[in-house]
Amino acid sequence: MDGNLNALTTVFTEFYYWVTVVFMFLIHVGFCMYEVGASRRRNHMHTLMKNVMVIPLVTVTFFFFGWWIYWAFPMFPFFGGLDHEMANANLPWSQTMGANLSDRITGVFWAAFLLFSWTAASIVSGSVIERIRSSALWVHAVLIGSVWWIIDAAWGWHYGGWMVQYLGYHDAYASGVIHAIAGGYALGVIMVLGPRIGKFASDGTPRDIPPHNPWMLTIGIFLIYTGFWGFYAACNVPAISPEVIDGQITGTTWTATNIYLAPTSLSAITFNFLMSLSGGLMAAYVVSKGDAFWTFSGGLAGVITASAGNDLYHPIQAMLIGATGVVVVYKLHFWVERRFKLDDAVGAVAVHGYSGVLGLIIAGFVLWGAPSSPYEGYAAINPVGQTIGAVIMFFVLGWLPGWAVAKMQAAAGVLRIPEEVELQGLDYAEHHAYEDAKIDIIEADKAHLAARATPAE
Amino acid sequence: MSTIGYENWAVDLANVGPIYPFQGWEIPMTIAGVIFWLAWHRIQFVRESEHLEKARKMGDPDKIAKHLDRY
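Above: the input entities. Below: the C-alpha cells describing the complete assembly.
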C-alpha cells in the first residue's frame, strides 16, 4: 500500500466488499424465513436446518476449491488450459488465503463471491422442501455453490472469461450466472424428486399448498430484497483508475465498474434496481390478480429479469423489462406445473430460472452492439451470444448436473424421504418427545383449571 | 519464539506478509480441513439414514392426523 491514495483505495475497497457481505447475509436469512413460512408446521425445523447448514458446507468447500476454480477456469477447457498463474494465489494453501498484511482484498472478495454461492444453493433448497433428504440436498448445495456456478462465473462473469471474449456475454448483476443456473439446477432436481404427497389430484390437477405463515414469507422476501442491494453493490468494483484497468479507456477519470471492468456507477444501478423492482411488483400484482405470494415474488423476478443489463439500462427500460419478465414467468410457471406435473414449492425455477434466461436474451437485444468489455478484441453484446449464454447457464451448467446427480441419488435410494415420514412430518420423527411432553402439560393444566373452576353465579 | 513469526511489532508493515500461526503447514492444514468436511458428510449421511428408517415405524396414526390438521 505505497502512497496515501493507494492506501485509501485499498482500505475503502476492503471495507466496501465487507459491507456488501454483511448485507448479503440478509438474503440467506430471507430465504430461511421464506422456506419455513412456506413449509407446513410438521416440517419447520428440518426445513430450517436444511438451509442453515448450506452456509458452512458451501463456505468450506468454496475455500477448498470453489475460489480456485474461478481463477483457473476462464478459458478452460475449450479455449485454453487452467490459468495457474492467477489460480495459484487462490489455492487453499496460498499465503494470501489468510491473515496477510500484504493482501487486504482477497478475503473480502472471496466472501462476496461466497455469498453468491450460498444464494445459488439456497435457491435450489427452496424448491425441494418437505420431501428431500437433507444429506441429498447438501450434496447438491456443494455442487451448485462451489462447482457449477463458479465455473459459469469464470466463463461468463470474469473480465477474461471466454464467454465474454467470444460471445459478448453480458450479465452484470447475474441474471444468468446465479439465477438461471440455480433455477435450471432446481428444475433438474425436482424432475427426479417428484411432487409432495397431495400436490396433484388423481386427475392430474395441481393443488395449491398454501404457506402456513404468509407473514413470515413476506418478511423473508423483504429481507431478500434488502440483501439484493448488497448483492448489486458486490457485483461492482467500487473505484478503479483507467491505468489499473489497462484497457481502451482513455484519460485519468476514476470510475466504478461492473465485474468485466467496464464502467458503470452505483447511482445507475440504484435507479435500475428500484425501477425493475417496481415494474416487477406492478406487473405481478396485475397478472396474479393481487395474489400476495406472486406479487412479492414478482418484485424479485422483475429485478432478476433486468439484472443482466442493469449497469447500462435507462430506469424506464429496467421497469418495463422487469414487468415483461414477470408476466412471462408467471404464465410459464403454471403451464409447466400443469403440463409436466412438477412441484416447485416456492416458485424458484420460475422466479430465478425463467427470469434469468429471459433477462439474458432481452439484454442481447436492448444492448445490441454495446461493448461487453473495456478490452480490445472482445465481441460486442448481441442476442445470439446472450441466447447461447442462457442455454449454457440454465441447461448445460444448471439443469443437466442437477438432473444427473439427482438420478444417481434416486437410483441409490438416498434422494427422497420415506412416504411415512413425509406424512407424519420430518419434525414429528425427531421431536415426538417434545410434542408428547407439550400435549401432556397442556392437558394437565386444563384439568387443573377445570378442577378449580366454580360455576358462575 | 512466536507461532506467527513475529515476537513484536517493531517492523515496517510494508515488509510484512502472512501473520497466521504455523506458516509452512498450509497443505497439511488443508488436508485436515478436507478430511473434516468429508467426514461430516459421512457421519450425517449414516445418521440420517438410520433415523429415517426408525422414523418410518414411529408414527402414531392419531397423532399424525392431528399434525395434519395443524397444517
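Note for the figure: Chain B touches chain A at residues 13-14, 16-20, 23, 26-27, 29-30, 33-34, 36-37, 40-41, 44-45, 48-49, 51-59, 63-64, 67-68, 70-71 (CB under 8 Å).
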